[in-house]
Amino acid sequence: MADTSQVLEFAQVVKRRWDGTRELLVLDGVSFEIGRGTFVGLYGARRSGKSTVLRLAAGLDLADEGRVAVAGCDLASASAVERARLLRGVVALVAPDSWRARPQESLVDHLVLSLGCDGITATQARRRAYSALDEVGLAGVGLEPTASLPMVERLNLMLARALLHTPELLLIDEPSVIPSVSGRERFGKLLRELARARNLAVIVASEELAAVQGSSVLMSLGAGQLTSTDERGVVVHFPGRQRAAGERVGA
Amino acid sequence: MATKTIESRRWMQGASSPLRGALLGLVLEQPGHGGELASRLARRLGHPWRIDPTDIYRLLARLEDEGLLCSSEEPTPGSQRATRVVYHVTEETSEALTLWLETLVPREPMRSTLHAKLAAAQGVNDARLLLRALEAHERECLELAQLVPPMTSGAASLRTLLLDCVRSGVWTQLQAEIDWSRQSRERISEYLNAT
Questions:
Q1: Are A251 and B58 inside 8 Å of each other by CB?
Q2: Would you call A197 helix, strand, or coil by DSSP?
Q3: Is residue A239's pLDDT more than 70?
Q4: Is the dihedral of CA A80, A83, A85, A88 positive or negative?
Q5: Region of A217 on the Ramachandran plot (φ > 0 left; ψ -120 to 50 alpha; else beta)
Q6: From the centroid of its chain, how far is CA A98?
Q7: Is residue A160 exposed (0-12), middle (13-18) or buried (19+ Cβ within 10 Å)?
Q8: Distance between CA A7 and CA A70 in Å, rounded?
């Protein structure tokens, strides 16, 4: 039986992609583990494989080698039913470029429709939709059409949608699409608060280091390989407690 | 007048000039003793500065010698006999701060140990060692980035806005270092694998 205390586990994950002329090694033996309540920032330049990591974690794609496990369950060997359960109930991926809301539908309707035939009444669905909107600060505009939302609130709506199924693992792909600095900061703050309140494991992937600020673990990806502040033997100094020798401020 | 101005800018030279200038600003805001000023400075500038209180004590004493600050001995609260040195402004402090803010102090030489190591490496084995050094450097940058507190949304006051600019400066610099380390490693590995 796998260790279920980890929400997400990558072990020596290899992912190759064919780009038309040659094979690219997108992930070349990437390993990490994430437990609940961990807020992970994943930094990497464009095309460094960040989205691939998230798509593998969300089960939208399978690894070529190695193991990707969600809540202790190996996605490659799980049955289709088990995988569907995990991916609907445990993992939520928020990717701004997959915005699919119909422009005229209201925020509430958007969420209610995404709940679909989930064996609940229309009233229950609306209640769940409103409580999710409330969590992201959008309850006040629940009846507005989705087209009226600025980019930062779109992300909030996608976040609300992700929260409908009480996930344990939240994956955010590129929040730096939010145009303003203050908007990005507000979104980051909301994410950290949600993660704390719901004890979520979160991965925020971005090509901007500043977009992953406030994370408890910071990883960077490039050339298929991962560097992380969470590796064995790494000493992290905290302000106030640090005082390593040979690190004096110059006279 | 001109000689006085040149003379009064002498303290701005040297690697500790940023800390000394910042200390003037802090004392202008509120007098304080060495330890307190050190922790206020550390909070404001952030972890990557690695503020060491010992250095701060020394810099404060020097600023006092130069007449830019003065000190008084005051009883330590909660203690009968112990006293501590509290720093206050002098007539020159405010002017010196303004002068510092407007002076274009030449930048310190850019001396990265890693740059020097890359320049001095002798062959394939050394290059392999440097791959590891570059990776360690990248991880160190990540660790520093992680310790920078998140920026405040909507910057409520000029003070928080300016501090946010400090933080974003640190982020930008660390991101550039990480990217550089990545690119260098990629290029070196590619070369080593090809030969």
A1: yes
A2: helix
A3: no
A4: negative
A5: beta
A6: 14
A7: buried
A8: 6
The tens digit of pLDDT for each residue in A159-207 reads: 999 999 889 999 999 988 888 878 888 888 899 999 899 999 999 999 9
- Mutate which: B23, B43, B182, B190, vs A, most A CBs within 10 A: B182
Look at residue A92 and give its three-state secondary structure: strand
- Which parts of chain A fold into alpha helices (H)? 50-57, 80-89, 107-115, 122-135, 151-163, 181-198
Paired with B32 in beta bridges are B87
**DSSP string over B147-187:** HSPPPPTT--SHHHHHHHHHHHHHHHHHHHHHHHHHHHHHH
Q: Which residues of A touch B (CB under 8 A)?
A: 41, 43, 45, 181-182, 185-186, 188-189, 192, 208-210, 213-220, 222-223, 227-229, 231, 234, 236-240, 242-243, 247-251
Residue A86 tokens read as 């995990």
Q: Which pLDDT does position A34 carry in this prediction?
A: 92
User: Which chain B residues touch A180 with a CB distance below 8 Å?
Assistant: none
Concatenated DSSP letters of B38-58: HHHHHHHH-GGG---HHHHHH
- What single letter denotes the amino acid at residue B98? T
Asked if residue A208 lies in contact with residue B175, where contact means CB atoms within 8 angstroms, the answer is yes
Q: CB neighbours of B62 closer than 8 A, spacing ≥ 6?
A: B11, B20
Dihedral over alpha carbons A148, A153, A155, A156 (to 10 degrees):
-130
**Within 13 Å of residue B158, how many CA atoms lie on the same side as its CB?**
0
For B99, the enclosing helix (H) or strand (E) is: helix B93-102
Q: Can you give the residue ranges of every domain in chain A?
A: 1-90+167-180+196-231, 98-165
Confidence of residue A240 (pLDDT cuts 50, 70, 90): very low
A207, closest residue in chain B (CA to CA) = B175
Alpha carbons A137 and A248: distance in angstroms, whole number? 45
Average pLDDT value for residue range A125-140: 93
Average of per-residue pLDDT across B25-39: 95
CA distance B182 to chain A (A): 7
Superfamily of domain A1-90+167-180+196-231: P-loop containing nucleotide triphosphate hydrolases (3.40.50.300)
B184: left (phi over 0), alpha (psi -120 to 50) or beta: alpha
